[in-house]
């Protein structure tokens, strides 16, 4: 009786492990959802980006606040980045963490995003490479 209970437990453990291994990986769009924070070290300016599942994005960068929409490519580039296209719906102006004080309402910008495999860090790059990047942004655990 003990052997059959042990065997059944072993089979269930193996099936559970196989089901976890067979589960599809979470999409990049699902992984980016949440609040991410980066601090510019030289001036201690904080930028927070909050990606929502409905495709909207709120950014607070220094004194600037903006409301945006975004589209994140589902497929990664050959370099492992996901193309992120952001449309700035409303920019309140104010100096941001990059010392820019302009209203960018209506502009569309393209970035390339790489999310760390454990999901707690994000790099935001200007091109499909690690040459010109900001970050890492840290996921807000709240």
Account of the protein in words:
The protein is an alpha+beta fold and about 140 residues long. The protein has one domain: Lipocalin (Beta Barrel). It is about 20% helix and about 40% strand. It has two helices and eight strands, in the order H-H-E-E-E-E-E-E-E-E. Strands 1-2-3-4-5-6-7-8 form an eight-stranded antiparallel β-barrel. The longest helix has 21 residues. It is globular, with a radius of gyration of 20 Å. The protein starts with a helix and ends with a strand. The N terminus is likely disordered.
Topology:
Layout: H1 2-22, H2 28-32, E1 34-40, E2 45-51, E3 56-61, E4 64-72, E5 82-91, E6 108-115, E7 121-125, E8 133-139
Antiparallel strand pairs: 1-2, 1-8, 2-3, 3-4, 4-5, 5-6, 6-7, 7-8
Count of runs of 4 or more consecutive helical residues:
2
H and E order: HHEEEEEEEE
Radius of gyration: 20 Å
Mean of residue pLDDT values: 85
How can the largest sheet be summarized? 8 strands, antiparallel, barrel
For the largest sheet, list the strands in their spatial order.
1-2-3-4-5-6-7-8
The CATH topology is given as Lipocalin
Kindly give the count of domains: 1
Principal-axis shape: globular
The helix content, as a percent range, equals 10-25%
Name of the top-level CATH class: Mainly Beta
Question: Structural class per helix/strand content?
Answer: alpha+beta
Work out the strand percent: 35-45%
pLDDT < 50 runs, ≥5 residues: 1-24
